[in-house]
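Thread: Newbie trying to understand structure tokens

Hi all, I'm a second-year student working on a class project, and my supervisor (Dr. K.) asked me to get a predicted structure for one chain before our next meeting. I've only ever worked with sequences, so writing a 3D structure as a token string is new to me. If someone could post the tokens and maybe explain what I'm looking at, I'd be very grateful. Here's the chain:
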Amino acid sequence: MLVLSHNPLSIGGTYLFELWQEGNSLVVEGVVRWSRPQGVANEEEAPKESRYRAGVAFERVRSRERRDPWPTEVVQSPTRGRPVDRLAVARQTLAEADSIHVAAEGLLDVLEPMFERLVLFRCHASALRAWMGRGRTLRPLRLQSLEISLDQPSMFLHLREGGSFFRGRLPAMPVHQDLVETWNGDLETESVLVPIRIGHRMVTVLYADTGDEAPSSEDLDLLRRAGRLLEESMTRLILRQKAESRELGDSPVRT
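---
Reply by user tm_fold:
Sure, no problem. This is what the structure looks like when written as tokens:
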């Protein structure tokens, strides 16, 4: 299928697509075969707000009960686990991860039973884009198209400028309203934002909320410590990748 999007899709990447028609929806999995900026081919019928085109090969229909990087339904545990247990599992999971993407997914898997919604954002130049998420009410396509400008006032801008975390109700600002609308929510829900940094540069932000309940001090402590684990894992994996690149560069050329 042909997909029009605001952001480029990774060639070879697997994505979930929610197809809508007359009030009915279907979640399918597809692999991106090609992706390019809009305008290189015949674009007369393409919406002007879409900036990228991608060709997607259909793989299969996905169950709404299955756990996916972009779930539309997730069966959550009936009871909340103890933070110390979650951290121990998270530490082991991230230590065994062989890529940043696997580490991030593993962390969300560990934290998921304790929170209503979890979203990881990645920094791109002057904006944040949704990377992956967990939660029953998350709308994958809405979230994937969300772009949070760091040029506008928001708690995300506060974090980029050095804030260590945020807990409470997000202030009534357009950026925050755009975020909660991705799950048809409102700004009455209390949440936690935790920045993940490499050195002094913010590279990722973790959003979490506990639904109708306000996040507790224990929730905040768990999320901050989990964020540090992800930060350590990302740093380790980046350094390993650089070391492997240097080794390849130093290898003698065979003729």
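A couple of things are worth pointing out once you decode it. The CA atoms of residues 33 and 55 lie 6 Å apart. The first strand starts at residue 2 and ends at 5. Feel free to ask follow-ups in this thread.
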